[in-house]
Write a structure and sequence with these properties.
Elements lengths: L25 H9 L13 H24 L4 H21 L4 H25 L3 H21 L7 H25 L13 H31 L6 H24 L6
Length: about 260
């Protein structure tokens, strides 16, 4: 006699076994309906550690490139094209909000070469000025980070708009001063060793610190919002850009008051 399987109790016409299990209850059906369908895991979100690691990579690439340009004593024949390429890459990353590591590290290499040549020129004119500028940049970074961490000041949307507008205005003024220098010695005096030049340099250093505040705020907001991990590259780029701005402005400002004489 054929024994019956407790699960498959009858066979179809084609000999296939038909399901004859227990009928699910209403509660079980509701649970089955409420269970979400399978979805692949989402991308990992950005953390502060991600930004720190990418920041070291981006800034480290710039420093290594600058050290090579310094040690090889490269001239402006290579540094000038590198600066132009770096400027183009920086504009692409900034306006497209690109997270492509190749573009960001390429910017670091190009600007590192230019900064290495420029720093070597300043150091030949004044011994030790580069070390002073590096220490000044570190102090400015640490002080700005302390102000933000201790919540002494936090950027507001109005403050962010002001800083961005001031940045564009500063670039415009420097461009006009450069055009003026083609016709007048020292241009309009914004980049000269004069009281006006000192005031402008101080304003540019403060503007660099303001950009750092915006960078810190953007990083914190990105972590809270759970943006994808790849955006840590963009955050690192912003920090590097602000530090380059600070270093160059501090280097210029110190050069007004130091000399080998």
């Amino acid at each position: 006699m054929e024994s019956k399987n407790p699960i498959f109790s009858r066979r179809g016409a084609a000999g296939q076994q038909a399901w004859a299990g227990p009928t699910p209850s209403v509660q079980q059906l509701n649970q089955m309906y409420a269970t979400p369908s399978y979805a692949p895991p989402g991308a990992r979100t950005m953390t502060i550690d991600d930004v720190v690691v990418r920041g070291f990579m981006t800034l480290g690439t710039l420093v290594v490139s600058a050290a090579l340009a310094w040690s090889l004593d490269l001239g402006w024949g290579l540094a000038a094209p590198a600066m132009i390429v770096g400027l183009i890459l920086g504009l692409i990353v900034s306006f497209k909000q690109s997270t492509n590591p190749a573009l960001i590290l390429g910017y670091s290499v190009c600007y590192g070469l230019a900064i290495g040549v420029l720093s070597h020129m300043y150091n030949e004119a004044t011994d030790g000025i580069v070390l002073q500028a590096v220490l000044g940049t570190m102090v400015a970074f640490g002080g700005t980070l302390a102000v933000y961490t201790l919540k002494i000041f936090r950027p507001t949307p109005k403050f962010a708009k002001f800083v961005i507008a001031a940045g564009f205005a500063a670039i415009g003024l420097m461009l006009l001063n450069w055009i003026g220098s083609l016709f007048l010695p020292g241009g309009f005096g914004l980049r000269a060793d004069t009281p006006l030049g000192w005031i402008f340099s101080i304003a540019m250093i403060l503007l660099g610190c303001f950009f750092l505040l915006l960078d810190f705020s953007e990083i914190e907001q990105g972590v809270r919002a759970g943006v994808p991990e790849r955006y840590s590259w963009l955050m690192a780029f912003g920090l590097t850009l602000s530090l380059v701005w600070l270093y160059l402005e501090i280097l210029r400002f110190i050069s007004y008051f130091t000399s080998n004489d």
